[in-house]
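Narrative of activities, Objective 1.

The group set out to show that a structural description can be obtained from nothing but a protein's sequence at a throughput compatible with the screening campaign. Below is one input-output pair from the validation batch, recorded exactly as produced.
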Amino acid sequence: MTAESDALAPSPGGLRRALEALYDISAWLAALCMVALLVMVLLSIVGRQLAFHVPGTDAYAGYLMAGAGFLALAHTLKRGEHIRVTVILGTLHGRTRRALELWALAAATVLAGLFAFYSVRLAWQSHLLNDVSTASDATPLWIPQLSMAAGTVVMLVALIDELVLEWRGQRTGAWNPEASHNE
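Output recorded for this entry:
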């Protein structure tokens, strides 16, 4: 390789920074959904107190809740905060533990891949069919479904990332012993 092609090749640190940025952006979007959800709930409460109604607040609150949940999945995984069955993992060591970690990550990656595929497909079909909410808001359903599709795709990326890191023996924080004290 020449010095010029070496300079153009992406560094592993650059890919890691890009992935971390993707997870952080997804978490920030989830946080924005939570803030918007709070606004919807407060608007509904104030509306009841002052005798006015804003149509669609319940539906939008639901959309925002789903968006917050799905968009936060990858960031939560990467921070080791997903619920894990640590009773068995805590007793295993060495190759057996690593094999179980690899199996669990591979199975989760396959399931996340299916979930991402069908979530994206659902949003796309809703767009093609001009499917709208049956609630009073009549929102085109592909719009709120985008957050589910994006969240599942980012979760798939995060699981592939974790699987590759575990395979290479570079995974850190795969199991937080402190978290098991909360179970």
